[in-house]
Specification:
This protein is mainly α and about 375 residues long. It has helices at about 1-30, 60-70, 135-145, 150-160, 165-175, 180-195, 200-205, 215-225, 270, 305-310, 320-325, 335-345, 355, and strands at about 250-255, 280. The N and C termini lie far apart (about 65 Å).
């Protein structure tokens, strides 16, 4: 009797073992066939949760493919230029040239924008917002004659000739078939994974870093509203446009660079055809601003000191933002030289050394 019970126990145990091994085998085969994507754990500190598109959640495999494509020179017509050519990790994914040079030796007309913390942008992309989604933005430089000067069918064909890319697309999308839509989703995933939240200022907020006297004075000026009635308590009101965790407001604004007659780039108006949007451009993040020079849509300012000088006394025009118009009757912010230096000191506390050295964002090749 005992022998029969024991045999039954062994039989059940063997069934359980075989079932478990079969499940493991099925899971392994599914992973190899691209049917399972592992969620990518996005780290963002004290930032609010990002708005990731429901049809393109971040996965380890998708981010990896997007990273490969971001650094892939096959996306250009001469097979020599990648997205990283104008978005260098060491300069916070921006370009230190005033205007980037494309494969034909031609220069663009606007300064290359940074591509970190994109997951917190939801109001269009590029300086003028001509791309609704980040995935749309990812494909436009490929086709632009001033940039990579290639066609999407050619890029797809080049990638499809690579067994490595066919295998990676299969892991992400369940099929070796490559398309520009799949490319754009993968690049969107990678760019959404690039997050900057570990600056000295973040350490200050967490109580692990201390600001110098100049940095603290700059912090006060940055976050305090302009108040000409009380000069000693008046600030530079920078947070009006560059507020929140990402130091931007995701809007398009005219920040007083030129008067109406001097405007040569009408910015947002090109997209909306609304004259009220003349000379309005995307308000960019000030995180890592120390690294992303030159500044403004046309890269006209080489230094942060020049930027602060500009905001100390802006130029009036018909679409100038109201927050600047209130400063005009009083001759601008009237910042002292010490105050200007303090603002620059504070802006440099937004530099994130972790971002520019994080191997997750570097070339995989």
């Amino acid at each position: 009797m005992k022998k029969i019970v024991l045999s039954g126990f062994l039989f059940v145990a063997m069934i359980l073992i075989l079932t478990t091994e079969s499940c493991k085998k099925d899971t392994k085969e599914e992973e190899e066939e691209g049917e399972i994507n592992h969620p990518y754990i996005l780290e963002y500190g004290t930032f609010p949760p990002p708005q990731i598109a429901a049809d393109n959640p971040l996965t380890e495999e998708g981010v990896k493919l997007g990273r490969m494509l971001f650094y892939e020179t096959l996306l250009s017509s001469n097979n020599q230029m990648s997205c990283a050519g104008c978005h260098n990790q060491k300069t916070a994914f921006a370009d230190t040239n005033q205007f980037s040079t494309g494969v034909l030796g031609l220069q663009g007309g606007r300064h290359s924008m940074s591509v970190f913390n994109m997951a917190w942008n939801s109001n269009g992309f590029f300086w003028d917002g001509r791309a609704d989604l980040l995935r749309d933005q990812s494909l436009m430089p490929i086709q632009d004659v001033l940039e990579m000067h290639e066609t999407l069918p050619n890029v797809v064909a080049k990638l499809a000739s690579s067994p490595i890319y066919r295998a990676q697309f299969k892991k992400v999308f369940g099929s070796e078939e490559i398309s520009d839509e799949k490319m754009s989703k993968a690049m969107e995933q990678f760019m959404n994974s690039i997050v900057s939240y570990r600056s000295k200022f973040d350490g200050y907020l967490a109580g692990t870093a201390t600001l110098t006297a100049d940095e603290e004075r700059g912090r006060f000026l940055f976050f305090t509203e302009y108040n000409p009635s009380f000069p000693n308590a008046s600030g530079a009101d920078c947070q009006h446009c560059h507020g929140g965790a990402n130091f931007e407001n995701d809007k398009y604004m005219n920040n007083g660079l030129d008067n109406d007659a001097a405007v040569t780039d009408i910015g947002r108006q090109n997209v909306t055809n609304n004259v009220a949007d003349k000379a309005k451009f995307k308000v960019t993040t000030l995180r890592n601003v120390e690294l992303t020079h030159p500044y403004m849509h046309d890269g006209r300012f080489r230094t942060l000191e020049q930027v602060v000088d500009h905001y100390n006394s802006v130029t009036n025009s018909s679409t100038l933002d109201a927050s600047f118009q209130q400063q005009l009757p009083n001759g601008g912010l009237q910042l002292s030289e010490n105050d200007k230096a303090a603002l620059v000191a504070f802006l440099k506390t937004l530099t994130d050394e972790n971002l520019i050295n994080d191997s997750r964002y570097s070339s995989p090749f």
